[in-house]
Amino acid sequence: MNDINTISNNHRNHHTPIQSEQISELAKALCKVQAEVSGAKKGSSNPFFKSKYADLASIIEASKEALAKNGLAVTQWFSESSETTCRVCTTLMHESGQFITSHLDIPLVKKDPQAMGSAITYGRRYSLAAILNMAQIDDDAESSLARGITNQQRQRS
């Protein structure tokens, strides 16, 4: 029974976000970012599923100005977490020194550079969108509603 508890606790700790002791300044700044940024436009196509998605560049582009303006920065890195997975780590940092870090293990389909690169990009895209609580927005359907742009950009128009 102790082994089961140890495994359960290790698994839970492995997936728990790591954060600074306080995150109040980070939380205030993130609230401002989320009020300014509507989402990332789905500008890339997945021919296999016949669907559109917001690629990593569009998520970065949609968020970087609001993040910088509010004293926030994001860093991402990766490591091999096992023979069959790649771990993507994402840290959201505030100029006060407060931070929150999450880890995402992505299965590797093959063990070659192409598979590793794809897994890293996929993990970065989903982790960044998740830590910012950013949705992907259909450009076609949303353009008539002026979504996919920041609230500030909308006010300037």
Structural description of this entry:
The structure is a single chain. The chain has one domain (18-156). Helix content is 45%, strand content 27%. It has six helices and eight strands. It has helices spanning 2-15, 24-36, 56-69, 113-132, 139-142, 151-156; strands at 18-19, 40-42, 44-46, 51-53, 72-80, 85-94, 99-107, 136-138. The strands form three sheets. A four-stranded antiparallel sheet has the order 1-7-6-5. The protein is flat, with a radius of gyration of 18 Å. The chain starts with a helix and ends with a helix.
Task: Explain the layout of strands and helices.
Layout: H1 2-15, E1 18-19, H2 24-36, E2 40-42, E3 44-46, E4 51-53, H3 56-69, E5 72-80, E6 85-94, E7 99-107, H4 113-132, E8 136-138, H5 139-142, H6 151-156
Parallel strand pairs: 2-8
Antiparallel strand pairs: 1-7, 3-4, 5-6, 6-7
